[in-house]
Amino acid sequence: MQNYLDLTGKVALVTGASSGIGAATAIALAAQGASVAINYNRNEAGANQVQQTITAAGGKAIVIQADVTKTADIKTMIERTSTELGPIDILVNNAGSLVERMKLLELTEERWDDIMNLNLKSVFLVTQAVAPAMIERKTGSIINLTSIAGRNGGGPGAFAYATAKGGLITLTKGIAKELAAYGIRVNSVAPGVIDTPFHETFSTAAMIEAFIKTIPMGRLGTSEETAKVILFLASDAAGYVCGETIEVNGGQLML
Fold first, then answer.
1. How many CA atoms lie within 13 A of 56 on its CB side?
2. If we measure between CA atoms, which residue out of 143, 134, 249 comes closest to residue 188?
3. Of 197, 194, 175, nearest in space to 244 by CA
């Protein structure tokens, strides 16, 4: 029986893969046979732990430090991935952060730019850098991590983050239309409230409790549950899925 999730021989680059959804995604892709480049910016220890988990299970992974808001870092990251693992077949644009909860009258122009650069501009820059080799080979899958915030405007003090993630949904559709003719599928995943270091940093216990009350499944999601959806989009099982945003939120938002 054919395993449509099999990624043997594929090369994947996962940005922001040192913890949370990115880490779980790197591990899930490797478990299906992909060689994985684990990108991190500051959390080297976390990235090394992800690599150790993959190699202990018999997989292949490398760790690459890069700030994905900087074109020079991106260039080096892609060159290292291609040299050490091979041409990139799967790109997961996962790097991102709320950065800081700030209300409209508190948010500075500089902070606005920080949030847009990390959550939206970085995806454009990395995708633009990876696309030429995919176009040449006429194959590839690109998965962008957006958020339920991009649909509903976000939680308290998160409207800038939500704006960037909403833009990412649109970016996904636009790039999908452009690259589909080259055999490249571009999709996105929109997690809801997932039990990750993100909410440990930006959400209080009271906020989490309030969030859970709005989720029909009555609990937070896990990084692994999100990673499985990303794995699906990366694989041949999603061979005719293009320009879509899949909601992973326990029923909190149904479109």
1. 7
2. 143
3. 175
Residue 161 bears catalytic tag = yes
Model-wide pTM > 0.90: yes
Question: Residue 191: what are its φ and ψ, rounded to 5°?
Answer: -70, 150
- The CA angle 164-36-95, to the nearest 5 degrees, is 15
Indicate which residue of 4, 40, 161, 182 is catalytic: 161
Count of other CB atoms within 10 angstroms of residue 252: 19
Give all domains of the chain, ordered by start, each with its CATH number.
Answer: 11-248 (3.40.50.720)
d(C-alpha 153, C-alpha 163), whole Å: 7
pLDDT tens-digit series, residues 168-188:
999 999 999 999 999 999 999
- Contacts (Cβ under 8 Å, ≥6 apart) of 105: none
Q: What angle do CA 120, 163, 158 make, to 5 degrees?
A: 110
Percent of the chain with pLDDT over 90: 94
Rounded to an integer, what distance in angstroms lies between the CA atom of residue 142 and that of residue 243?
A: 10
* 8 Å CB contact between 76 and 66: yes
pLDDT at 201 over 90: no
In this structure, what token pair is assigned to residue 11? 């090369």
pLDDT for 89? 98
